[in-house]
Amino acid sequence: MTRRLIAAAAQMGPISRSETRESCVRRMIEMMREAAAKGARFIVFPELALTSFFPRWIIDDQAERDQWYEEQMPNPAVKPLFDMAAKLGVGFNLGYAEKTQEDGATRYFNTAILVDANGKICGKYRKVHLPGHKEPQPGRRHQHLEKRYFEQGNLGFPVTPMMDCRMGMLICNDRRWPEGWRVLALQAAELVCLGYNTPNDHSGFPEVDALADFHHVLSMQSGSYLNSVWSIATAKCGNEEGSSMIGNSVIVAPSGEVIAQSQTLEDEVICADMDLDMATQYRQTFFDFARHRAPECYGLITHRKGASPDPDDS
Ligand code: CDV
Question: What is the CATH number of the domain that holds 139?
């Protein structure tokens, strides 16, 4: 018997600087109802889905900065989303900024969680590939200060068995780096969930910005195909506080085919009926890892960080 999961991407249009968590959660609940009415049992929400994308701003005051993070999950503002998930019997993936006390220090991460159909948190991931800068870049219309406001994730790339599916998570920029996908695939992940905020107006190179949608879809299709996994990528998009962000939320099959794609730059639900066994099918043929991979030849992947022509560079 094939294992099927009807899943959805719940894309969000812009979130203004003054919009409250309560308002964002209301928008998400509305989309959760719509997805459930279409038969979906699992939903992927965007990266940093509870606030505006604050790393575009220089915020020096620590107390002001701390307001952008969640110290508890679920907290009272977000609890209605968990309650609705349990009521409708729908699981979800949610991205948010996390402030936590760990190893005797206050720490900040760009985080995503997996919540099951009973409203219970089953998995957590903290973004590894943080883009942008630690120090503000002079002359930029919008900053991208993720390296200032978050530290690199410290949970690796975990796979969580949930809703009869082996689920992994990546966050936004992670989709451009094949290493994370592969670490998930090597744990027999069947679905990769990813939320993103991808601007197309401030790389400093108009020719790069013009390809932002193409590179996003390319990364999702290649990540899915080369690793034999389903993937769901959900945007926060549109014009947010003067920054233009791409839409194009997609659900991609292990074949690399795009099965569903959003059409707007607003709140929008897309769904797909996923045959989870498709992941296994590809892993028994082209991508039978155990038969064809050669880890003994891949040492540089874990030993060397940057590209170098010097054979002795570590
Ligand atoms: N939020 C992100 O990680 N955004 C990056 C941008 C800055 C390139 C992305 O990869 O889409």
Answer: 3.60.110.10
CA-CA distance, 253 to 220, in Å (whole number)?
10
Instruction: Give CA–CA dist 176/235, Å, rounded.
Output: 15
User: In angstroms, what is the span from residue 170 Cα to ligand 1's centroid?
Assistant: 12
Token digits of residue 282: 């590809």
On whether the pTM is more than 0.90, the answer is yes
Q: How many domains does the chain have?
A: 1
**Which protein residues are within 6 Å of ligand 1, measured from CB?**
47, 131-132, 144, 172-173, 176, 196-198
Q: At CB < 8 A and 24+ separation, what contacts does 296-305 make?
A: 301/179
pLDDT for 131-182, tens place per residue? 999 999 998 889 999 999 999 999 999 999 999 999 999 999 999 999 999 9
Q: Phi, psi at residue 265, to the nearest 5°?
A: -115, 35
Catalytic residues: 47, 127, 172
Going by C-alpha positions, the residue among 254, 269, 98, 258 that lies closest to residue 190 is 254
Residue 107 phi/psi, 5° resolution?
Answer: -130, 150
